[in-house]
Design goal:
With 290 residues, the protein is α/β, with parallel strands linked by helices. The chain has helices at residues 46-56, 77-90, 103-107, 111-120, 134-139, 146-158, 177-191, 208-215, 223-235, 263-276; strands at residues 17-20, 22-23, 42-43, 64-68, 96-101, 122-130, 162-169, 195-200, 242-245, 256-259. It is built from 10 helices and 10 strands. Helix 6 packs parallel to helix 7.
Amino acid sequence: MKYEGMIIRPPSEAYSLLLQVTVGCSHNKCTFCPTYKGEKFRIKSFAEIEEDILEASDYRSVEKIFLCDGDALIIPQPRLVEIFFSIHKHIRSMKRVGCYANAKSILRKTPEDLVQLRKLGLKIVYLGVETGNEDLLKKINKGATYAQIAEAGRRIKNAGINLSVTVLLGIGGIEKSVAHAFDTAKILTEIDPDYVGALTVMVVPGTPLHEDYISGRFVLPDTFGFLRELEIMIAHSDFTNCFFTSNHASNYLSIRARMPEEKEKTVRMIHHVIQSGDHRQLRPEYLRGL
């Protein structure tokens, strides 16, 4: 397999074949994200992609494929369909394809396009929501409004594709902490995803967010401030059938809960940890990371 630049994938795709169809991220302007800085976005040629597909056809059994990099859905529909046809032709054991997407790339697809991709094997899409606060979406240069993100999420769900979204604890700093938590609960309720992953913002040198942090324009909540945001998000979100996690390495408190069945129990547990003020119940700082 021929990879260019940094390759990332969701934790749930740990055992998937990583097929790189684009290099970098089509947006690449979020103030908190260092992942593809310095990389020029491009869509790989079909010849490049098919060469990797042919190599993968020699592997013993490939059931799951993840299309890298940051935004495979930005590929025009005819080329994307061509890629899926090649996967079906050469990797007959394939059962599921997943990819990252952003609101812009999803909204460029018609509902019929998305249904077509689902029928071709696209079973899960990962969407970075980050926050439901309109002011913060502008501030972090997300490239989409609340309404656009909500519509993108609904479009994926309506196509019958599983939707996994991420939200960022602490991205509003102290100033917007509570508003961020309530507004994020609102957009999560509106989208009603199948999976939610809550991560805690990590301020990475070289990003605009780090510059704001150094200058004092951005002040992180304290450890239990992150947990208060998590408590608010879960308490004020309503899900039909969702698996909610905060078990990423960036988080202080690991949560794995089925919603709505375990909602009240989870909120009580988070509240108890906050009230106790006991740092021994949290992931130590030296074990946290991106």
